[in-house]
Specification:
By secondary structure, the chain is an alpha/beta fold. Strands 1, 2, 3, 4, 5, 6, 7, 8 and 9 form a 9-stranded mixed beta sheet that branches. Strand 10, helix 16 and strand 11 form a beta-alpha-beta unit. Helix 13 runs antiparallel to helix 14, helix 25 runs antiparallel to helix 27 and helix 28 packs across helix 29. The chain is elongated and about 140 Å long.
């Protein structure tokens, strides 16, 4: 059988003993377009078909060309006009094929239409019909055709009840399904929608299935439209009523349920599309604002570039001038005369810098700096302090100055500062297509934990956020609250907890592209907070940025001590006001701490990078991680553009222990961390006790004072007065600082650490006692510089917070001093080793 030329085989193909597989059925009113419809059947790749044409006009049909006439298997004539339904039924009755398909005389089929539908029907006997996609076009002229619609819906029986989305020539159906009782026929009462009614009859017997892809054309005549648009609305309404009546007779309860579910599905889909449209509009508006901002920045950069070019031109002129002046100097007599002196100077520079010259230079710079900061009288008042700490200062004065850059023109110019606003202020940006796992170690997180989780879930412009909670034995509602918020909860026993282990365990259970380590009481500011951190990390990835943390903003109930500490900390890190990227610049502890600091309050890093480094140790694991990152050549960031609300209002006793542990950790981590030598434990303890007694008296005065002085002025007066009265240091008194645990520790520490040893303090002990009092007053001096920019005249609230700050500062000074003593005598062969172990066990426990 030659499928390329089926019309030449029509006699054999249509022999009675071999019925065709497909009957193509055309109703015609004698329109000229019939020729195109017949031609499209003749051009089919599938050749096992018969073509039946019924002349429904009641008039003789115009003769067809021989080739077209030979394509028609059978022409059925009628002496009177036939309705659409009657003509269709006549064709059904005459069809002999296994499958049948209708084709209107103004539409046409593409060459693969029959083959793809036959293939599906033969492969699945359960189907009653198969249909393809149909393109709806306007105009008769092929060159000017224009698509106006595309029928491409998957089959849905409920939707078919409400609308006909199946053009008549899209569908090929089984004839045995038509004949299946009750037989399916076109309803003569329907002058419209007769094909829709026919599909509903067939669909009630067997399902339909779509074959994707356009393989038929539905032509809309420019004059006649679809054939329905000319019909009066009254006729359409009448025909719909007839169709509805027939439907009511056919419907069962399952059909009504299907319609209800279809309505719900369509409503949900519509709402979803509306939401998508709204989000798309918002994204478009944000992009427009971003483009405007980029335009403004571009204009500003152009202006800046112009000014820089002008400056470069001036510098070029100056350079030429200086070169001329240098040439004049080189040619001068004095330059030639001093040539031997310059050679001798270069000879001396080959040898190391001599200690006396270095010492003299450093003394000059140190004195000049102190006088500039404190004035002549202030420097004079501090002379006793400098002399008492002569060992520490002499070591510093003998140190070598930082290396100078020999050629200032070889130094890199300062980079332009990348100033960013919080993304909530700029509208955020397009959603970042990554998943972030937020890891939070918890222990009795309290009622505010639910607020934190809700804020994390409210973060926008990040594709997916996973929350991993590692709980170490909470007895409150922390675990159920986390699970209700959709968090993945990992529970460990309390004795298994350490800051590094809990966070590493959370990272092992995380599935995100990035991991964000947080603490249970940090509250993100804004709904684009996480987006801001992630955007910064991605924008600077080409600079080797591997991790980022953000600064803290104190809670409203934070105390002066904490506010001062984080202000000092972020000034030291360089991120108080601006974002800062740190990199390796040296092994000294100042460089490593200032450049490598990360914070577990919020630490964002790619999961792949974190698994290479991971946390280690039981304390300051975030600083350790940051230092290892920058030493490996990576960079880390501390951000001021996005922040979290986080602070603590802890008792003074906590600062005693925390300062002790901080000093021990930093000395262990950094080889160059300066450790003042404690010459006398009795002197140190006496200094702590007498200072506590002195502070106790002053705290009582603060609470009852009605002074209108500013907080800074009153603090300055008290510090100056204390430097005079502390000459009586060593005279012990009662400790009444207002913290029971701190008072108890101070009242009993001499007995615990010295035993029954008593006696008159010698000069060494008295000097040690003064050194402690001086270190405490130096801390208050530091706080005073912070307070000068923050606090004004006092009131009852400020006086109470001031007294709280003083007792906490005293506790921190005592903890640091005891730590230095322990470090001085930590060797096992030291006679004080047992005392050191006792002090360490008391103050390091539980921090």
């Amino acid at each position: 059988m030659n499928l390329d030329h089926p019309q030449e085989l029509s006699c054999d193909l249509h022999a009675p003993h071999l019925p065709p597989k497909v009957s193509v059925l055309i109703r015609t009113m004698g329109r000229p377009s019939l020729v195109n419809a017949v031609k499209s059947v003749r051009n089919q790749l599938f050749g096992d078909w018969e073509l039946l044409v019924v002349n429904a006009s009641g008039k003789p049909l115009l003769p067809l060309a021989e080739k077209d006439a030979s394509t028609v298997t059978r022409l059925i004539e009628s002496n009177s006009p036939l309705g659409r339904a009657a003509a269709a039924n006549m064709l059904l009755d005459a069809a002999t094929g296994k499958f049948a398909i209708f084709l209107d005389d103004d539409d046409w089929l593409l060459e693969d239409h029959l083959s793809k539908l036959v293939q599906l029907l033969e492969s699945d006997e359960s189907l009653g019909a198969a249909y393809s996609d149909v393109e709806c076009v306007t105009a008769d002229d092929t060159a000017s055709q224009k698509r106006v619609h595309l029928f491409e819906s998957d089959f849905d029986a409920a939707t078919l009840q409400l609308q006909n989305y199946l053009p008549i020539h899209a569908v090929m159906f089984r004839m045995d399904c038509v004949r299946m009782a009750p037989a399916s026929l076109f309803e003569p009462a329907l002058q419209l929608f007769e094909d829709w009614d026919f599909w509903l009859q067939l669909a009630a017997k067997k399902p339909f299935r779509r074959v994707p892809g356009i393989s038929a054309i539905y032509a809309l005549n420019s004059d006649e439209g679809s054939g329905h648009s000319e019909v009066a609305n009254m006729l359409r309404q009448t025909m719909l009523s007839v169709l509805a009546s027939r439907q009511m007779q056919r419907w069962q309860a399952s059909d009504v349920v299907g319609l209800m579910l279809n309505a719900v599905r369509n409503t949900n889909q519509l709402n979803h599309e509306k939401q998508k449209a709204t989000l798309a509009q918002q994204d478009a508006e944000r992009l427009e604002l971003r483009l405007m901002e980029i335009g403004r920045n571009f204009d500003a950069l152009q202006e800046y570039s112009g000014s820089q070019q002008a400056e470069l031109n001036k510098l070029s002129e100056l350079r030429l001038l200086h070169l001329r002046q240098l040439e004049e100097i080189y040619q001068s007599r004095s330059w030639h005369v001093t040539k031997p002196l310059r050679a001798f100077g270069r000879f001396l520079n080959q040898f190391p810098e001599r200690l006396p010259m270095r010492f003299a230079r450093n003394v000059y710079h140190a004195v000049a700096g102190e006088v500039a900061r404190n004035g002549v009288m202030g420097f004079a008042r501090r002379l006793p302090y400098y002399l008492r700490h002569h060992r520490t200062y002499l070591a510093l004065l003998r140190s070598r100055a930082p290396a100078r850059n020999g050629n200032v023109f070889a130094a890199s110019p300062p980079e332009l500062r990348d100033i960013r606003l919080h993304p909530d202020l700029t509208g955020g940006g397009p959603t970042i297509d990554v998943k972030v796992s937020v890891i939070i170690p918890t222990l009795n997180a309290g009622p505010e934990f639910a607020w934190m989780l809700r804020k994390l879930r409210a973060q926008r412009a990040v594709r997916e956020i996973e929350i991993v909670v590692v709980d170490s034995g909470s007895r409150d509602t922390t675990v159920p609250v986390a699970r209700n918020a959709g968090a993945k909860v990992i529970e460990i026993p309390p004795e298994e907890f350490s800051h590094s282990h809990a966070r590493n365990l959370g990272a092992d259970h995380a599935t995100g592209d990035y991991v964000l380590f947080m603490v249970q009481d940090a509250y993100p500011i804004g709904n684009h907070w996480l987006y801001g951190m992630l955007r910064y990390l991605l924008d600077h990835a080409d600079q080797g940025l591997a991790a980022a943390s953000c600064a803290e903003y104190s809670r409203s109930d934070s105390d002066m001590m904490y506010d001062s500490m984080i202000n000092t900390h972020y000034r030291f890190l360089g991120c108080l006001e601006y974002d800062r990227i740190g990199e390796y610049s040296g092994d000294d502890h100042m460089s490593l701490r200032s450049q490598g600091q990360l914070s577990d309050v919020s630490c964002l890093i790619s999961r792949e990078c974190f698994q290479q480094f991971r946390y280690r140790g039981n304390y300051a694991e975030d600083l350790d991680l940051g230092i290892r990152l920058i030493k490996s050549g990576k960079r880390v960031a501390m951000l001021a553009s996005v922040k979290v609300i986080h602070s603590h209002n802890r008792p003074a006793y906590y600062y005693l222990k925390r300062s002790f542990v901080d000093v021990v950790f930093l000395v262990g981590l950094f080889d160059d961390f300066a450790v003042p030598y404690c010459e006398s434990l009795p002197g140190l303890l006496a200094g702590i006790e007498s200072t506590a007694a002195h502070v106790s008296q002053w705290l009582g005065q603060i609470e009852t004072s009605s002074s209108q002085l500013t907080l800074t002025a009153q603090l300055d007066g008290w510090i100056n007065e204390s430097r005079k009265t502390f000459s009586l240091v060593g005279q012990r008194g009662a400790s009444m600082l207002g913290d029971d645990r701190l008072d108890a520790f101070i009242s009993t520490m001499s007995e615990r650490y010295l035993g029954a040893a008593t006696g008159v303090m010698d000069a060494t002990a008295r000097n040690e006692a003064r050194r402690f009092s001086d270190s405490f007053l130096a801390r208050l001096d530091h706080f005073k510089s912070f307070a000068a920019d923050v606090y004004g005249e006092q009131d009852a609230v400020l006086r109470h917070e001031l007294s709280d700050m003083v007792r906490k500062t005293f506790a921190a000074a005592a903890g640091s001093a005891l730590a230095f003593y322990c470090l001085n005598h930590k060797q096992s062969e030291d006679v004080a080793h047992a005392t050191v172990e006792l002090i360490h066990s008391e103050l390091a426990a539980g921090v």
